[in-house]
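Section 5.1 Outputs to date
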Amino acid sequence: MSSDLVDPTKIVLPKKLRPSDGRFGSGPAKVRSEAVNRLAKKSDTFLGTSHRRDSVRAVVGKIRDGLSDFFSLPADYEILLGNGGATAFWDAAAFGLIEKKSEHAVFGEFSAKFASLVQAAPHLDDPRVENSEPGTRPAVVADGQVDTYALTHNETSTGVVMDIKRVSPGLMLVDATSAAGGLRINPEEFDVYYFSPQKAFGSEGGLWVAAFSPAGIERIASIAASSRWVPPSLDLGIALENSRLNQTYNTPSLATLFLLADTVEWMNENGGLEWTASRCDKSAAAIYGWAESHEMATPFVHEEAARSHVTATIDFDGVDATLIAAALRANGIVDTEPYRKLGRNQLRVALFPIIDPDDVVILTKAIDFIIEVLTK
């Protein structure tokens, strides 16, 4: 086991074991320095201006067009934006997408939160919940009483990825908070694919973004035509109306918009989703291959096909992972700590496309060095 006499913050990594960028957090995640520099150059004329002016609306339009290209969306799909992040989108979905009964695939902290929210909604029936233990993924069950299936493409808390396959009939609602931008997806398999920009897209928080199919747009309209009361800030009809004008209902963070637009452009210029997903594949192969061959490390997710290529969770035996994380942080390699509520002796490492796969390889070697010092 780890020596109690070793202060992890005093361990100094050799220069060759320091990644070019030490940010491996699962969100907020690494932001590209190039994008920040471009924002700084534009700050005098962009930041502090009205979000309803042409200069800002042009950026929103760039985001919507760029994401449509990135996801290879059919011509009749639309990109919507709103304030508050993916957590606020759960509220909006409970008001504006679920008609009466939903089914939720729950396999971690975030998928459970959405199910709990819907369970508490007085205007909805109790949802059907398909649970599985952390580190595994549940099966989706077709149910004729269900009008909305709520899936999670990547469970950020556990590092488990879920296959997204359409279940008919029913609206396919997919939480892609940490998946979008790094995992492959077929638009034909979803009606709403929503996410936050502070993960794989390397922006800041406070915004939700969603790709809607015609069926998703139709569901907004049908609920809007009912007698259901919806708070304006969570009204997806209002979000749709404003998105078509390349703006949001409430004032957004202009920095978030700029950084998102910049990263989407960077991704598309380099090859789009296939390019970004391939980068994540390389990072995943590096860290899981290392863990599988290690005496003290093991991938938390045992089923290889269920292992996330954007969020890796690695268990440790014989060494305290909190000491490893502390030593990494002391050397500028940050946010590798596990999800706090999972309570495991592990590290959680983001593998987003902005993170250089070579840096993931260097990270594994840095961990080896730290383990050797801690276990002498």
